[in-house]
């Protein structure tokens, strides 16, 4: 009602209807509005403020933001990455896993022999399996992949929050980048949408793993020259 009152008041100010009629609902019908507009004299139209027109205005279509991450050129030929993935919701998890391997190998040049994979039952087991990998110091980054779909109980929230928090703690404690590839979705359709085609999040995880591994190597003063690891003086 407040919105209709504001519209009606504005219409009355423009002289499209009489002030008394402006607040009558029937005066806002398209037919009444058109009739009043047509009845405006040339003088009334010319009295409109500069820049204000009675002609309909066509609004530009809103620009939709594109999803995804832009990456620089990444050379992962000497990078070793671990992938830990779940059997739970395997159909979607395998798509994300394949996407990660595409991001690693096809886009960053990581050798197939330098991709180490562990399989675990579910998302609850991901942090400890990722920890086993990280503690060996034989991988430069770890990608943990799982899919959780909200059900009727709070179990989904318990697993999701605890597992994600543990992965963050793991990378901070070990210094090994750990990618959180756990999807928390409200239904399986959401999970499928994030594991399919150009929107496969696994591809981004693979690229991110290499970028973070290279960042860690440079900050630790490690470089590779002709396949041989050498110490680099940073400062």
From TrEMBL:
Catalytic activity, EC: 2.5.1.78
Signal sequence segment: 1-22
Record pathway: Cofactor biosynthesis; riboflavin biosynthesis; riboflavin from 2-hydroxy-3-oxobutyl phosphate and 5-amino-6-(D-ribitylamino)uracil: step 1/2
GO cellular component, one term: riboflavin synthase complex
Keywords: Riboflavin biosynthesis, Signal, Transferase
GO biological process, one term: riboflavin biosynthetic process
Keyword Phosphoprotein carried by entry: no
InterPro entries per UniProt: LS (IPR034964), LS/RS (IPR002180), LS/RS_sf (IPR036467)
GO MF, any single term: 6,7-dimethyl-8-ribityllumazine synthase activity
CDD domains with a match to the protein in the record: Lumazine_synthase-I
Catalytically driven reaction(s): (2S)-2-hydroxy-3-oxobutyl phosphate + 5-amino-6-(D-ribitylamino)uracil = 6,7-dimethyl-8-(1-D-ribityl)lumazine + phosphate + 2 H2O + H(+)
Enzyme class: transferase
Record's function text: Catalyzes the formation of 6,7-dimethyl-8-ribityllumazine by condensation of 5-amino-6-(D-ribitylamino)uracil with 3,4-dihydroxy-2-butanone 4-phosphate. This is the penultimate step in the biosynthesis of riboflavin.
Protein family according to the UniProt entry: Belongs to the DMRL synthase family.
PANTHER family: 6,7-DIMETHYL-8-RIBITYLLUMAZINE SYNTHASE, 6,7-DIMETHYL-8-RIBITYLLUMAZINE SYNTHASE DMRL SYNTHASE LUMAZINE SYNTHASE
Designated name of the protein: 6,7-dimethyl-8-ribityllumazine synthase
Lineage of the organism: Eukaryota, Cryptophyceae, Cryptomonadales, Hemiselmidaceae, Hemiselmis
């Amino acid at each position: 009602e407040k919105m209709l009152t504001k519209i009606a008041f504005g219409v009355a100010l423009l002289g499209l209807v009489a002030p008394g009629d402006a607040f009558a609902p029937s005066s806002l019908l398209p037919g009444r509005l058109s009739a009043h507009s047509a009845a405006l004299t040339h003088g009334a139209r010319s009295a409109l403020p500069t820049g204000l027109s009675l002609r309909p205005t066509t609004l530009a279509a809103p620009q939709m933001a594109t999803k995804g991450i832009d990456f620089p050129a990444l050379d992962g030929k000497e990078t070793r990455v671990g992938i830990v993935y779940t059997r739970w919701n395997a159909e979607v998890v395998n798509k994300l896993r394949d996407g990660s391997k595409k991001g690693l190998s096809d886009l960053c040049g990581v050798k197939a022999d330098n991709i180490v994979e562990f399989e675990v039952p579910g998302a609850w087991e991901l942090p400890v399996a990722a920890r086993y990998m990280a503690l060996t110091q034989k991988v430069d980054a770890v990608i943990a992949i799982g899919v959780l779909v909200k059900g009727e109980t709070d179990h989904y929230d318990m697993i999701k929050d605890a597992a994600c928090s543990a992965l963050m703690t793991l990378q901070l404690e070990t210094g090994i980048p750990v990618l959180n590839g756990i999807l928390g979705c409200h239904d399986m359709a959401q999970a499928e949408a994030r594991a399919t085609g150009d929107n496969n999040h696994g591809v981004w995880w693979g690229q991110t793993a290499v970028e973070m591994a290279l960042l860690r190597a440079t900050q630790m003063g490690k470089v590779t020259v002709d396949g041989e690891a050498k110490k680099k003086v940073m400062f």
